[in-house]
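Entry 14. Ran structure prediction on the chain below.
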Amino acid sequence: MPSARLSLPTRVGASLGEFFAIGDDWERPSPALARSDFVLFAAVELLGLFTLELVRSVDSLTQTTAPKWVQWLTVSLGAVLLLGRRRWPLAVATLGAAHMFVVGVTMPEVMGQFTLQIVYFITTFSAVAWARDRRLMRLVVGAIVLFMFLWIAWQFVLGSSVQEIVDHTKGKARTGIFPPVPAAVALTLIVNLLFFGGAIAAGQVSWRSARLRTRLGEQARTISEQAESLRRRAVIDERLRIARELHDVVGHHVSVIGVQAGAARRVLAKRPEAAADALGAIEESSREAVTQMRGLLGTLRSIETETETETGADVEGASGRGLKGRAPEPGLADLPALVAERTAWGVQTAYDVVESSPGAIDRLSGPVSLTLYRVAQEALANTSRHSTASSARVTVRVTEDGPRPHAEVEIVDNGRPRSGTSGTGMGQLGMRERAATHRGTAEIGPRASGGYRVRVRIPLGENHV
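Output, C-alpha cells:
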C-alpha cells in the first residue's frame, strides 16, 4: 500500500506529461501576424466597447468608480493581447492573467464583461495550442491556474466575498437546498474549473490536430516523392529493356544479313539462283529488323510523351499504354523457327525441350519466355559472328516441381573464338541484365571440353503463371 501511494504522483505526472506531449520533439511553427489576428482584435475591441456601454446604460456598473476612459482602455488592452496570441502565446497568457487580476481587483464589474472573459479564455487556449516549448508551457499555464485558484481562495477566506454573500442573503428565506456560502464557493470553483479546464483541453486538442496535419502532410509528400521516384525508375527500366531489345534485334538481323551477304558473294558468279535466295533472305531480315525497331522506338516515344504529360501516373499503366499497337513480342514458341533459320545458314542447330510436366513451357509468363528467347537469339548470333562453330544445340528446361522450380535455356556450340571478331561485350552484358531482371543467373564462357556455353536460369514462382 505505501508503494502504491508513493507511485500515484508518478503516475499522475506521467499521465499529464503524455497528455501535454512533453517528450514530443515536434514544434508548432510560429506564424507571423495574419489578417485573421487583426480581424479578431477588431471584432473583440468593437464588441467589447459596445457591450460595455450597454451595461453602463442599464446601470450595472454602479460599483466602478474609474473614469470612463480607463474602462475603455482596459477593454482595448485586453483586445490588443489577441494580436500576439499565436506568435508569443506564453507571454500573452501571462499578460492576460495579470490583466484579469489587476482589473478584477480594481474594476471587478468590468473584468466580468463577456468580451474580456472571451479574451482570457483565448489567451489560455492559445498558450496550450501554440507554445513551442511544451515543458515551459506546462509550467506557465500551471502557474496561472494555481494563481487564479489561490486568488479565489483569498477572496473567500480573507476577502469580502463571504461577507457580501451574508449581507445579500441576510433576512431572506432560503430558496435552495444548500447554504448560501458553500453554494457560492462550489459554484465559483465549478465555473473556473470549466473555464480554465476547457481552455486547456481545447488548446491541447488544437495542438495535437496541428501535429497530426503536419505529419500527414509530410507522409503525403514522402509518398508522392516515392511514387515519382518509382515512376521514374519504371521509365528508366523500360528504356533499358528497350535498349536491350534493340541490341538483340539489331544484332540478330545484322548477323543474318552478314552471313547471307557473304554467302551471296561466294556463289554470285557460279550459282546466281543461290545468290538470289541469299539476297531475298537479306531483304526479309532487314525488313523485319526495321519493323521491330519502329515498334520499339514507338514505345519509347510513347513513354517519353506520357512522362512529360502525366505526373504521378500509374507506372505499369504508363508502360502498358505505350505498348499498344505493337506486334506481339517473340517467345519460346518462336525458338524452333529461329533454330531452323540458323541451320539454313550453315550452322547445324538442334533444339530440345525438357519439361517436368507436359505443357510446362506454355505456362511460363510472357516476360520469362521473351527473356529466354532473346538469350538464345543473342547466343546464336554471337556463334555466327565470333565463332568457328559448325554445330550448336539449344536446350530449354522447365522444372515446376521440387524446392527450386526454374526455367532455363542453354546454348552450347563446338567452335573456337574467331580471330579479329571480338565484340564490345554488350551482348553478354544484356544477357546478364535480362537474367538479373528476373532474379536469375547467367553462366557464359568456354567449356572445358571445347566450345562455348551460355546458360541462363530464372527461378519460377512470382515469374510463373
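The CA atoms of residues 64 and 106 lie 8 Å apart. Will compare against last week's run tomorrow.
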